[in-house]
Amino acid sequence: MPRAWRFLLAGSLLLASCVRFQEPERRRLAADVHPTAADVYLPRETETIESTVPRHATLDSLLRAHHLQEPLVAEAVAVARDVFDPRHLRADQPYRLVRSVDGLLREFEYEIDADRFLRIISRDRERPDALDAQVVAYAKQTEVAAIDARIDGDHTSLISSIDGAGEKIQLALELADIFSGQVDFHTELQPGDSFRVLFEKSSRDGEFSSYGAILGASIDVGGRRLQAIRWTDPSTGKAAYYDENGRSLKRFFLKSPLKFEPRVTSKFSTRRFHPIDHVYKAHLGVDYGAPTGSSVVAVAAGAVVAAGYSGAGGNTVHLKHPGGFETYYLHLSAFGPGIRAGARVGQGQLIGRVGMTGSATGPHLDYRLKKNGTFVNPVAVHSRQAPGEPIPVVQLAAFKSSRDGVLERLSTALLAEAPRQKPDAVSAVGK
Question: What's the number of domains the chain is made of?
């Protein structure tokens, strides 16, 4: 073949190759200019709103604020009322709403508490007014955990020591309730005291949700070792706390009418210099200094004799208890729900809040105790309480077996936690 023809043939082949390689690129560009049916833009059918309930909102006003159709708002409130009281909607709780662009409700979820949420849903697209409501439990993961907390220079209260061990105030409150008849956590704690606790702890989506039951605890306070074992009576199914010998930790009186962080600012005395009257007179109670609004609870079950303003004592609650006892709670800023003459109260029930009504130089609670008509020192009486009722003899062996299991589990859990705690926590495990 002549040389010129060979060059002509090679050029033709090269041109054909270029055209072949460019064809896919032309098709891609053509697709960008003329999209297929799958790429055609469709307007969004629904929108999702996630927020928290504003102050003073009702379920009705909350749904209307998101421009739902009026009949659907009324229907949503109606179906919700069958499973949840809409009046209990609380500010700052999270909610999630899915609505169509034309104002139809697809789904609404409201967090009632750490355990449950309200769900309202449209199950039939053909009938948008057919709504269904239910209260649903959150899926949770529960584990058994243990801590070893102590009182020291950095942690001077039960709350701060529990916080220092990585847990929350709710656990401290539960522990204080268990030992409330044996320990006054306001006045008796001192450096070196410690708290070892075995408890259930739930999480949701990897985040802390709530505490379950405290299964067992061993605390050292003021040189005393006190233990609590949770035991369920097989005959009644009711759970309560007992010491290592099977005696109930429940006492006739709580050690204090205040939950936490108050301090004794004035003791019971037959001759005290009055800070306002500037004369010596009897002080027939114990003054606890505490922030205004702190919870005040009944130290024992009983009945309300009076609840109202009482001169120098300000807002006062007077309770009568079995055994000839009466208690008085003075200078309150507010009364608890339902606290009025004739009402029955249970031990630990909220009866009021700390204030400084009447004759007072600052917010505090003046707590007084009468025995057979005579005022007595409440601290002394509370400290001399007899042990609680014991577990029946026929159940004692089963209790002791359960007790040993709980205490062994506590020790094992603390040993497992020790490498992640401070070095001095390791030695405390074996105490």
Answer: 3
